[in-house]
Amino acid sequence: MARPDKAAAVAELTDKFRTSNAAVLTEYRGLTVAQLKTLRRSLGENAQYAVVKNTLTLIAAREAGITLEDQLFAGPTAVAFVTGDPVESAKGLRDFAKDNPNLIIKGGVLDGKALSADEIKKLADLESREVLLSKLAGAMKGKQSQAASLFQALPTKLVRTADALRAKLAEQGGAE
Predict the structure, then answer these.
(1) Other beta carbons less than 10 A from residue 106's beta carbon
(2) Could you tell me which CATH number the domain at 4-126 has?
(3) Average confidence (pLDDT) per 10 residues, the chain, 176 residues
């Protein structure tokens, strides 16, 4: 029979897995409390970084419908539960890991799909959602401007052609 405190911890972790857009598993061995505090701040408001027990986290992930490899839970594990933009949090973890080699990104989950450490690093290389949306909006605006210019050019060209034809007919009529 499971102890009530462990059952509560599994339930809390299961809820975090279900309500998060992404979760990144890391090994934090060798980091000081001050460094962990800095890491939590660098992740921003949309991520929660928690040191977890491997067995309970594995059980919670399975209860949430997420399949993760058992090898991700070797050694001391901490999970960054991301409720906002996963790219921003992945960048925060990547940048912190560059400065602090003791932080090792093991893998994670994005929208229920398991990710390897390399895939999380690729995610960190993406531009943020806001930047991508602004680029899309700029591209769409540019296409609209091109379409408006094209639609405006057709009547203008027609008017110029009609004026040229009228001038030519007047010239021919005056020459006879």
Answers:
(1) 21
(2) 3.30.70.1730
(3) 79 88 88 88 84 88 85 86 85 87 87 83 76 78 72 77 85 68
